[in-house]
Amino acid sequence: MADYLVTRCSRCKMPFYFKTPQKTKRCPNCNTLLTLSKLSILYKAVNAEDALKIVLMLKQPGANSSFIEASKIMNGDET
Ligand SMILES: [Zn+2]
User: Fold this and answer.
1) 3-state class (DSSP) for residue 5
2) Which domain holds residue 26?
3) Over the stretch 63-73, which tens digit does the pLDDT of each residue have?
4) Does the predicted model carry a pTM greater than 0.85?
5) How many domains does the chain have?
6) CA torsion, points 70, 33, 61, 66, in degrees to nearest 10?
């Protein structure tokens, strides 16, 4: 079963999703060829629809920061 992983471009920080076991992907925003294994995974989804929802959420400026803060808290990075 494939996973849909949500990550961010290491160059322009644009969120996007890809489907495993894909190894590389061009950033839809800045066209940089990214090695997916070197990027940190923000979210794992079971289908493309869910992955797209997360990407769209991350693109919202307001929702973005609250989502990132929430994930930091879950990871224990926030003091
Ligand atoms: Zn980019």
Assistant:
1) strand
2) 4-75
3) 555 555 555 55
4) no
5) 1
6) 0
